[in-house]
Amino acid sequence: MSTSLAGRAETPMQARLLAHLRDDGPLSRVQLADRMNVSRTTIAAEVNRLGELGLAHEVGPAASRGGRRSTMVDLAPGIRFVGISIGATGMSVGVTDGRLAVLATRTRECDIRQGPEAVLATALELARETLEECGVERPMGAGVGVPGPVDFHRGVSVSPPIMPGWDGYPVRDAVSRGLGCPVVLDNDVNVLAIGEQHAGVARAARDFLYVKIGTGIGCGIVVDGELYRGVDGCAGDIGHIRVQDFGPTCACGNTGCLEAFSGGAALARDATEAARAGRSPVLAELLAEKGELTAADIGIAVSRGDAQAVQLIRDSGHRVGQVLASLVSFFNPGLIVIGGRVTGLGHALLAEIRGVTYRRSLPLATGNLPIVLSELGDEGGVIGAARLISSSVYAPLGSGAS
Fold this sequence. Notes:
alpha/beta; 5-stranded mixed beta sheet; 15 strands; globular
């Protein structure tokens, strides 16, 4: 087994250089000098130092542009990061290289309500299995996403509505001890937004919203290319925006929240009710077969032509669209990406969300506003978590993860 532990960047210039190599691939010294607006001599010195730190290396001559050939520079081949994306009912764990290409992943069902010790033990087990598969003894760092508000600087969960026992738990430090490397912790939706920005449909977007519709509903906000977390780390918690004065009680204790109507758990509840009331023969049949229903079963019922299942999707998409229309008028994003497990319901849900959002927003704000499904799947959280820790590890010592 190899270890990927290396030094840390020592200067902001080195950090910028590493970020360019991560995001754009191998670049020549001339290209790096042009992008960073410094001399080639300065780039040569910084690349040499990064080579000594085990972070970058020269990989041969660049293509000839006339005159003396420049030298190509790339990230060190042994850099490895771990990405851990924990949701309410499942987790994805993966290992990436320095440019965040996913080398191996593991997924597993889990229940966030089991508490931090049990859930993190599973995450660490999957991380060690994946590292072993990749021949890595210790990674350079790990990023973790959890489905609730996070104090990013302290690395702890803060008052998470659907995570009993997690409030104040030192998630970052526990994972750091378990893997023997620096760790950063963030909300799962922020992690997914960052993954989408790095490798998904939002690569060219500077201002966009990533909306996750899973057991809960949340929104990652990217402003001018940077993630916006808010003062207390709970920016984008749109699942708890009230869409109706009265309605089911939400996990947060209030009534009428978007999540209580349109989250995955709410859809499963409504599907079960429809099945038991005899309004949906297909859902009743699925309930009899399986003993319980999930949001995914609504999609199965829709594929079999069940009218009640179609109505459930429309009702859910309508309420999500209501909230997104308000966000569009307020934020004026260039793109909205919809992700999360409920998006397995597909284009019926997307069509309703789009229709309501476009109808209820100002034409100026929606004239050039794509609303699209994420295409990254389970890898999105892994990539986003790895990107988080890469930004920290590539930054100068003292400015990153613990």
